[in-house]
Amino acid sequence: MAKKQExxxxxxxxxxxxxxxxxxxxxxxxxxxxxxxxxxxHGGSLQDSYILISHSKAxxxxxxxxxxxxGNVHNHEERRDRELLLHKRxxxxxxxxxxxxxxxxxxxxxxxxxxxxxxxxxxMKGKKNYDKRESLKExxxxxxxxxxxxxxxx
Length: 154
Fold this sequence. Notes:
Largest sheet: 7 strands, antiparallel
CATH architecture: Beta Barrel
Number of domains: 1
CATH topology: Small Protein B, Chain: A
Shape: globular
Strand content: 35-45%
Order of helices and strands: EHEHEEEEEHEEH
CATH superfamily: Small protein B
Oligomer: single chain
Distance between the termini: 47 Å
Number of strands: 9
Structural class: alpha+beta
Helix content: 25-40%
C-alpha cells in the first residue's frame, strides 16, 4: 500500500506581512484530479487569493494551480473558483466575521493531512504601513540577536 503524504504544498507567506492573524481554521477543498497532481508537484500559488462567502458556499478565489504538465484536453483552468468544504456552523461564523469592518478571510496554506488536501484559513486584520515597518524592525532585531548568540557560542 502506498504511503500517505503529509506536509505543506503551498503557502502564503506574504499574508503574514500584510495582515495580522486573529484566528484560523481548517477546511477541505473540492479539486479536480489534475489539480491534485499539480499540487503534489508544488505547482500552486496563494498570492492575492481570498475567500468569498456567498449563497451558503465558501469559494476560494484567485488561486493559481498550474496546469498539470502531463494532462490532456481535460486539464483544469488555472484560476477557477474552488469550493471549500465547511460545516454549516463554520460557514455562518465566517460569514459574520467577513462582514465586520477591517477583517478578511485569507488562505494561508494548502497541505496534505491524512491523505486529504486541506486549506488553512486565516481570519486576518489588515496592517497599517507603520505596523509593517515595526514588524520588520522586530524581525531584524531577532535575527541580530540570534547572530550574536551564535557568534558567542563559537
